[in-house]
């Protein structure tokens, strides 16, 4: 490891903190040997449901050097989204990550700033920014970069801050000082995430059947939600936070300080009746720059209508 690698790594991490990231770790770019058979088995058992895109670019998902020519380092970053305020308790629920502006836009802007900083401070560096919309195994790289471990609910967990954060990467052709992988699993004997999942989506520790996951059912699934999930949605209309809410490590979560993630006041003030009568105009107003736009108005209404089968409606 050269002195320059150590110096460059410190510069990058300091700038990442200045940009508002929660953590920054660096791993050597290479083939993900452990993840390859797991990903293949998960796909072969059709646990990805209608997410056909998960089958694409299998090799690229496992080797970042196929995404960036000459890639030497994967810079993993996390960004807190844990909110201070919450929705009305009786209203259909939206996952906390979607309270504010679409995270793809917010994080991409920060990543480009960081990439520009690297080029201006260190020299011409070739690299690409990734925010979960490309074939990159975010959690695997964050684990390799020492940010945390992958919990039984398949989320990356940090001892310092729980799991309510986004993950993103810069893959660059610059040799840096690499962090120690996070090899210790601190879930222990706890099974709260497995026990509390109302749809039994966590088949065994670390293995999720997406077809049973409420987040998949309310966001990814474009057809009708199967009636087998009647009375099992726990009032979620977009995403689901149950396996994170019950995780003991999230007692260390603290509210974020990112202005772009501040929730729309209209979202917080919407009552159960308001959601049941929502119009497309209101939908567009509340979710103008939100990740919720992914379901489109029709999809959100489908989800709300499905919840009406619940006894408390």
TrEMBL record:
Active site per database record: 132 (proton donor)
Superkingdom assignment: Bacteria
Primary location: cytoplasm
Enzyme class label: oxidoreductase
Annotated keywords: 4Fe-4S, Cobalamin, Cobalt, Cytoplasm, Iron, Iron-sulfur, Metal-binding, Oxidoreductase, Queuosine biosynthesis, tRNA processing
GO molecular function: 4 iron, 4 sulfur cluster binding; cobalamin binding; epoxyqueuosine reductase activity; metal ion binding
Catalytic activity, reaction form: epoxyqueuosine(34) in tRNA + AH2 = queuosine(34) in tRNA + A + H2O
Cofactor binding note from Swiss-Prot or TrEMBL: Binds 2 [4Fe-4S] clusters per monomer.
Cofactor(s) the protein requires to work: [4Fe-4S] cluster; cob(II)alamin
Stored InterPro entries: 4Fe4S_Fe-S-bd, 4Fe4S_Fe_S_CS, QueG, QueG_DUF1730
Binding annotation for [4Fe-4S] cluster 2: 197, 213, 240, 243
Residue positions binding tRNA: 222, 298
CC terms in the record's Gene Ontology section: cytoplasm
Positions annotated to bind cob(II)alamin: 61, 132, 153, 156, 167, 215, 240-241
EC nos: 1.17.99.6
Pathway as given in its UniProt record: tRNA modification; tRNA-queuosine biosynthesis
Annotated [4Fe-4S] cluster 1 binding sites: 187, 190, 193, 247
Compartment(s): Cytoplasm
Domain 4Fe-4S ferredoxin-type: 178-206
One BP annotation, GO: tRNA queuosine(34) biosynthetic process
Family: Belongs to the QueG family.
Function: Catalyzes the conversion of epoxyqueuosine (oQ) to queuosine (Q), which is a hypermodified base found in the wobble positions of tRNA(Asp), tRNA(Asn), tRNA(His) and tRNA(Tyr).
Subunit structure: Monomer.
Name of the protein: Epoxyqueuosine reductase
């Amino acid at each position: 490891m050269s002195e320059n690698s150590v110096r460059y790594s410190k510069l990058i991490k300091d700038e990442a903190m200045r940009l508002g990231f929660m953590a920054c770790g660096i791993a050597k770019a290479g083939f993900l040997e452990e993840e390859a058979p797991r990903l293949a088995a998960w796909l072969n058992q059709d646990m990805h449901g209608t997410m056909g895109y998960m089958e694409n670019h299998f090799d690229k998902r496992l080797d970042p050097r196929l995404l960036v020519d000459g890639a030497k380092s994967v810079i993993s970053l996390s960004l807190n989204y844990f909110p201070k305020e919450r929705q009305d308790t009786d209203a259909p629920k939206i996952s906390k990550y979607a309270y504010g502006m679409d995270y793809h836009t917010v994080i991409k802007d920060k990543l480009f700033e960081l990439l520009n900083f690297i080029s201006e401070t260190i020299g011409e560096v070739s690299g690409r920014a990734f925010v979960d919309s490309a074939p990159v195994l975010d959690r695997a790289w964050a684990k390799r970069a020492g940010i945390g471990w992958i919990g039984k609910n398949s989320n990356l967990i940090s001892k310092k801050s729980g799991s309510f954060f986004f993950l993103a990467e810069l893959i660059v052709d610059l040799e840096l000082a690499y962090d120690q992988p996070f090899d210790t699993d601190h879930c222990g004997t706890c099974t709260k995430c497995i026990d509390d999942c109302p749809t039994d989506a966590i088949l065994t520790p670390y293995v999720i059947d997406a077809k049973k996951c409420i987040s998949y059912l309310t966001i990814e699934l474009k057809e009708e939600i199967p009636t087998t999930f009647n009375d099992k949605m726990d009032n979620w209309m977009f995403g689901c936070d149950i396996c994170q809410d019950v995780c003991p490590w999230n007692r260390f979560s603290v509210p974020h300080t990112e202005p772009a993630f501040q929730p729309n006041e209209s979202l917080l003030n919407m009552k159960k009746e308001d959601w049941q009568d929502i119009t497309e105009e209101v939908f567009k107003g509340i979710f103008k720059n939100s990740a919720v736009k992914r379901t489109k108005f029709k999809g959100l209404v489908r989800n709300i209508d499905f919840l009406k089968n619940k006894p408390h409606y």
